């Protein structure tokens, strides 16, 4: 993982805490400006780079920047609470769209197994559907917490518990995959592929 990718991951993890601290102190604009500055550092080079960007590569930084800019202009902290909902919505749309052809999970599996058997390709489609359900539930819960729950609950879910749930789903899928296909790549190979994709 490059330093910039690591910084971007750290920003994603810190986002709920920064928002919580800013809104709890009644200073939504300061939180929005801090997030805008962090986005410029992590995503700025991609925005300035020449040539076409990969599909969707700039969607999240641009969406986050738009929400933070709107909050900085209006002082409405609810805009900052919307980002996790938007992220899950974009991921849901991307995973659903991939089901029209080669699914996201199948594309990743083919990086480890170029000659993926048909049975495993079908399994990958089912796993893609599972991730679609996860993104829908995760985004819905983030929206419900933003609208109906104390701010601390929103920060706890979006900053910690949702990542725990994602990790459990990821690890659980690897266990199910190895039970169903004993010669399939395991957790070590899958994590190595994930690290390479973030480099």
Structure, described:
α1 packs antiparallel against α2 (28-48), α1 (3-24) packs antiparallel against α8 (151-180) and α5 packs antiparallel against α7 (118-148). This protein folds into two domains: 1-81; 82-199, no CATH class. By secondary structure, it is an all-alpha fold. The termini are close together. The model is unreliable at 50-55 (pLDDT under 50). The chain contains nine helices and no strands.
Task: Give the helices and strands, then pairings.
Layout: H1 3-24, H2 28-48, H3 59-74, H4 78-81, H5 83-98, H6 104-112, H7 118-148, H8 151-180, H9 187-198
Helix pairs in contact: 1-2, 1-8, 2-3, 3-5, 5-7, 6-7, 7-8
- Beta percentage is under 5%
Domain unit count: 2
User: What structural class do helix, strand and pairing data support?
Assistant: mainly alpha
**Can you write the helix and strand succession as a string?**
HHHHHHHHH
Main sheet overview: none
Query: Shape, please?
Result: elongated
Low-confidence runs: 50-55
Output the number of helix runs.
9
User: Would you report the number of β strands?
Assistant: 0
Radius of gyration: 18 Å
Distance between the termini: 4 Å
Helical content (DSSP H or I, runs of 4+): over 70%
Please tell me the overall pLDDT.
84
């Amino acid at each position: 993982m490059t330093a910039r990718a690591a910084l971007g991951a750290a920003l994603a993890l810190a986002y709920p805490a920064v928002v919580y601290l800013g809104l709890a102190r009644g200073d939504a604009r300061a939180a929005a400006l801090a997030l805008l500055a962090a986005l410029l550092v992590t995503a700025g080079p991609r925005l300035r780079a020449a040539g076409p960007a990969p599909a969707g590569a700039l969607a999240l930084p641009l969406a986050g920047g738009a929400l933070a800019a709107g909050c900085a202009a209006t002082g409405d902290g609810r805009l900052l609470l919307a980002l996790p909902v938007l992220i899950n919505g974009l991921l849901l749309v991307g995973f659903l769209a991939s089901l029209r052809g080669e699914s996201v999970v199948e594309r990743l599996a083919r990086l480890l197994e170029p000659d993926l058997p048909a049975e495993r390709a079908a399994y990958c489609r089912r796993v893609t559907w599972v991730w679609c359900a996860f993104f829908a539930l995760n985004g819905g819960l983030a929206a419900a917490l933003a609208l109906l729950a104390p701010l601390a609950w929103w920060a706890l879910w979006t900053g910690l518990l949702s990542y725990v749930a994602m990790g459990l789903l990821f690890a659980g899928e690897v266990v199910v995959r190895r039970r169903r296909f004993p010669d399939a790549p395991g957790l070590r190979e899958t994590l190595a592929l994930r690290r390479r994709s973030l480099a």
